[in-house]
Amino acid sequence: MPLPKPPAKRADMLSADDFTSQPKPAKSPARSSTRSASAKAVRQPVLELVGKEPLNTPAFQQAVNHLTPPARAASTHAPAMPKRGTASPIPPVAEKISDTPGISPRTGVATASSAVQGNTRRRKGPAGPAKLFVLDTNVLLHDPMSLFRFEEHDIYLPMITLEELDGHKKGMTEVARNARQVSRDLDALAADMGRAHADPAAGIELSKTGHKDARGKLYFQTMSLDVQLPMGLPQGKADNQILGVVQALREQHPPREVALVSKDINMRIKARALGLPAEDYFNDKTLEDGDLLYTGVLPLPADFWERHAKGIESWQQGGVTFYRVSGPLVPSLLVNQFVYLESPGVTPWYGKVTEITGKSAVLKTLKDFSHQKQSVWGVAARNREQNFALNLLMDPECDFVTLTGSAGTGKTLMTLAAALSQVLDDRRYTEIIVTRVTVPVGEDIGFLPGTEEEKMSPWMGALDDNLEVLARGGDSSSGEWGRAAANDLVRSKIKIKSMNFMRGRTFLNKIVIIDEAQNLTPKQMKTLITRAGPGTKIVCLGNLAQIDTPYLTEGSSGLTYAVDKFKGWPHSGHVTLARGERSRLADFASEVL
Fold first, then answer.
1. Strand, coil or helix: what is 107?
2. In the chain, what's the furthest Cα-to-Cα distance?
3. d(C-alpha 367, C-alpha 376), whole Å
4. 229-263 burial string, b = 16+ CB within 10 Å, else e?
5. Contact yes or no for 417/379 (Cβ under 8 A)
6. If we measure between CA atoms, which residue out of 44, 106, 51 comes closest to residue 77?
7. Are the CB atoms for 169 and 182 separated by under 8 Å?
8. pLDDT tens digits, 456-498
9. pLDDT-derived band of residue 140, with 50, 70 and 90 as boundaries?
10. Strands 431-436 and 360-365
């Protein structure tokens, strides 16, 4: 559609005749006649929403005048042409009308300055009225920034939610810290509500504290809501009071979608049993489906070399062959991603992506750790993924490594062997630090006596088992005393630390092993990774199918968060180990149980 004619003067408006005289796109005669008739009936330009029928009909204008105050209705007449240098009013914009738990719907006239500066509030996403989400207390305690993660939708906080926040603010636990942070955010948002001109029913703009992505409003429960819940639900319980608030809001604002957001599964079940919409809090999930997690390994098609042979370059450096390729598969590659090509009757080829520049990628061949002559501290790779993992663990340029896989895939054994080889043989790192989350599988056995390392020793059974395997594979000609001395030397280079005292520490030239990392939250994972100083390597091990921490899932685990955020970084790598090598009994049990 051609653009309208430019105005002759600065800050002047097009006249109604000039606006309506612009050429229209070719459409059906019936549609064109309707548009022309309505244009003649209305003496001012009105922006229309795309729909089945035009919105500038006399019936629509009468409905808008009926819903708006007299001052707004008076402003809908055609304005006179302003003089030069004066601000001109902008014609009213037809907005979608949505009910809010306040006095009036969100309508307004845009001013000339806001139109010029682009500061008008525009909602992103699908068209339609904004939803109203009633937050449960556990959502705020789980993610203190959840207030600002609902985009254009509004948030309603019942008074019982604030009471529960006040009950959780004392203490040094993670829940108490989150409660205090939420209280500080709410205090900053409600700082102006105590003044005379502030109207609590109008809501608070969530973007007033600098969170520009939050384009909705915050509403507090300011009056008692009369609601009748079923007799089986006690009225004094906090969860039932929140359900009553949701039901009352739905009755007060029937055209608007009101939904409960809670991390409590039983509360969501009760809400749906009462016919109330309830949702889980999904913003903490890195991935919706665990199958979409980055595996770090990509099989190449059988015709890879034929399709990427044009302009291929090859060279050798330090006993390693490099290939520079360009083709249709390059955009899907990531740095430090492993690729392999296996075909029947052909020698398999294994490589790693080391560089991506524009439309070309550099691949290099891998060191084969499957032979006993090239084993790491007596440990040789038994399958393809283990060979990939050992290449990452032994790479000095790779500062962050994540290994995931089911039980018995060799994650801890390979990591410990690579760490001992680089600490005792290569002298690349000074010592090994091992830590893990202390989440019991069954009932807690109570307090543990001793020092920090003695308290952590019951949680490090996997470390002791793997050290026993590594010590048994050593040189048997040294005798009993020699093996005992070697075990003492190995254990002197391994320090067991608790995660509770990691805040503020900095590790220099150390290799840090985080075992059972699937039980970490994203915030805890960030705390541990940021402890790394110069020359430090961090290795995270975990099985996403064995999460023991409450409220954590495969999509919201800190291990999933780290794998997704670090993929493609030149100094990090990830491998998903798929094949178990513990025993035939363990492999069969992991498949059938």
1. coil
2. 105
3. 12
4. eeeeeeeeebbbbbbbbbbbbbeebeebebbbbbb
5. yes
6. 44
7. no
8. 777 677 777 888 888 776 555 556 777 777 778 888 888 888 8
9. very high
10. unpaired
